């Protein structure tokens, strides 16, 4: 793995950060291009992305702290000093609320905009997961099968000292598939919001399954991991909303 991409004097460029930035840039480009096709100002989409990213990082961190509250009670300064520790669904929910507030303020169609950015979220997340692979976080359970990968000792996954399932690569591939499904589904959209909620259902279902193979600590609620627990409610909410929207509105 290559957690450090390269160094320029005292400056270290980490692969994880590069992948996250690359995912953001590609997602923003695709969303701005689709916005133009939908007669929405690309400037609004660019501004919207900042209302997604900032609340997203904060929300992802808060949910992680909540899931690992016992650890942070013992080491409270780690809340502010630790580099690791984010939960995607915390970021997803916070980003959704931030985006919802912005588009309403700008008097932009909420669900039309959501459809525009949904594929960008998927492709950006897919690229970001590659950063997780290079860093060695978000790893899978130990395995002796051919799919197992032995990470370097200095990485989070490498500390186990045994090959693990590369759930980062599996997640990245699944998100890439979801991206193409959303792009194709856009041609057959029946109502605004359909593509966004299709993304929510597909990702939640995939994440629920992938969580069974994850081996890193990430908190639990009852018999489910935190992400599985949230995924259940997202699938239910998306299905109910989609049925309601389909019966009352058209694109």
Sum up the structure in keywords.
two-stranded antiparallel ribbon, 251 residues, 4 strands, mainly alpha, 5% strand
Poorly predicted ranges (pLDDT <50, ≥5 residues)?
none
3D shape: globular
Structural class: mainly alpha
Number of DSSP helical runs:
9
Helices and strands, with pairings:
Elements: E1 4-8, E2 11-14, H1 15-37, H2 42-67, H3 69-74, H4 78-81, H5 88-105, H6 110-135, H7 167-185, H8 194-210, E3 220-221, E4 224-225, H9 226-248
Antiparallel strand pairs: 1-2, 3-4
Helix pairs in contact: 1-2, 1-6, 2-5, 6-7, 6-8, 7-8, 8-9
Structural features, described:
The chain has nine helices and four strands. The chain is mainly α. It has one domain. The protein has a two-stranded antiparallel sheet with strand order 1-2. A two-stranded antiparallel ribbon has the order 3-4. α1 packs antiparallel against α6 (110-135) and α6 (110-135) packs parallel to α8 (194-210). The longest helix has 26 residues, at 42-67. The relative contact order is 0.12.
Brief overview:
The chain is mainly alpha-helical and 251 residues long.
């Amino acid at each position: 793995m290559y957690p450090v991409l390269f160094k320029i004097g005292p400056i270290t460029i980490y692969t994880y950060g590069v992948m996250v930035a690359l995912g953001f840039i590609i997602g923003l480009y695709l969303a701005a291009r689709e916005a133009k096709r939908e007669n929405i100002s690309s400037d609004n989409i660019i501004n919207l992305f900042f209302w997604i990213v900032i609340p997203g990082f904060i929300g992802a961190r808060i949910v992680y702290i909540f899931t690992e509250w016992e650890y942070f009670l013992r080491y409270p300064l780690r809340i502010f000093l630790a580099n690791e520790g984010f939960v995607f669904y915390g970021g997803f929910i916070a980003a959704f609320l931030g985006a919802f507030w912005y588009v309403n303020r700008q008097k932009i169609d909420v669900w039309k905009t959501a459809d525009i950015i949904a594929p960008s979220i998927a492709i950006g997340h897919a690229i970001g997961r590659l950063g997780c692979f290079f860093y060695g976080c978000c790893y899978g359970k130990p395995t002796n099968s051919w799919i197992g990968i032995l990470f370097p000792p200095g990485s989070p996954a490498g500390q186990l000292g045994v090959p693990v399932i590369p759930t980062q690569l599996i997640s990245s591939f699944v998100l890439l598939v979801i991206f193409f499904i959303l792009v194709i589904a856009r041609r057959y959209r029946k109502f605004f919001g359909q593509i966004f909620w299709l993304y929510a259902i597909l990702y939640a279902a995939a994440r629920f399954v992938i969580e069974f193979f994850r081996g890193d600590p990430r908190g639990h609620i009852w018999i489910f991991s935190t992400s599985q627990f949230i995924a259940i409610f997202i699938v239910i909410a998306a299905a109910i909303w989609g049925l309601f929207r389909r019966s009352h509105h058209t694109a």
